[in-house]
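Hi there. Long-time user, first ticket. I'm pasting a complex I've been working with (about 342 residues overall). I'd like to know whether the download I got is complete or cut off, because the file seemed smaller than I expected. Thanks.
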Amino acid sequence: MLVKDKAKDIAILRTIGATRKSMLKIFILTGGMIGIAGTFAGALLGIGFAMNIETIRRALEAMTGTELFAAEIYFLTQLPAEINWMEVTSVIIMALVISLLATLYPAWRAARLDPVEVLRYE
Amino acid sequence: MSNNIILNAQNLSKSYAQADGETLRILNDFSCEIKEGEIVALVGPSGSGKSTLLHILGLLDRSDSGVLDIDGRDVLKLSDRVRTTIRRNDMGFVYQFHHLLPEFSAIENIMLPQIINGKTRDVARTRALDLLTQLKMDHRVDNRPAKLSGGEQQRVAIARALANDPTVILADEPTGNLDPETADIVFNMMMDVVRGQKIGALIATHNMDLAKRMDRIIEF
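Hi, the file is complete. Here it is re-exported in full:
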């Protein structure tokens, strides 16, 4: 989506002398930064959610006036949540690798963009 | 104007395959040369191939045949990377629409091609300020394109084209989007700067009055 939105800017940069390689770098860097920010924001949210799952349950019960996870049905007096830091770390690493890999194709497309074709229709 | 030829195009041809299978011939054995400091008008009706020619001469596109010699090098057969380097060092583009980057200020738009070319920010800023002063835009240095008038946007685009001290400027209807009075002001400023720096220029225009003020006219 970013490549499509920025097609005109890519064409202008190519016209003023930016190489295909620099376009590739720009989009890998941009995608990588978005991936890193998203992964760590997601990790913090997830950890925060897991650490406060019982408080969240109580708050939701108070707000909706219903009993979530009734003890007589689920045989639980409170919601169990255990943070396994090894798993957290491996999920973060996987998310970072996947987000980096996901930047490669759009970055390659940005580098291959033909400035003449883009500017012709502007 | 010197007799030193900076751009020499010989027998350039270009055609496109259309969806119906027909071949659309845009350029047919086109030849021209531009000397150092010479300002040449390219005049022709819409759709005659002026933009395609400028893209080929500006190394953004390739012709099907012919020879294009820039500063003594046949550039048609060079790799994309080398052509990009030549475009960065020797070419300046001005389009009908300014094509400035909207997120950057006027001065940043002019610094950008220089930074891409390896100049430091300080050197690029000094050069950008100098160009903006020459084009009487020094009071609008930090304004973004959206805050500039059409004439001002086009002056910044001209300054950006001149940023890397090119040997040739290629302009596609640079005043085509402006009212006649502003067009005249912008055109005069462009001519002054281009002549002052002894750069060659090929300027596509529909305006015969402007074309007559250049050194030579090529009719398409």
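A couple of notes from our side: Chain A touches chain B at residues 8-9, 12-22, 115-116, 119-120, 122 (CB under 8 Å). The longest helix of chain A spans residues 20-51.
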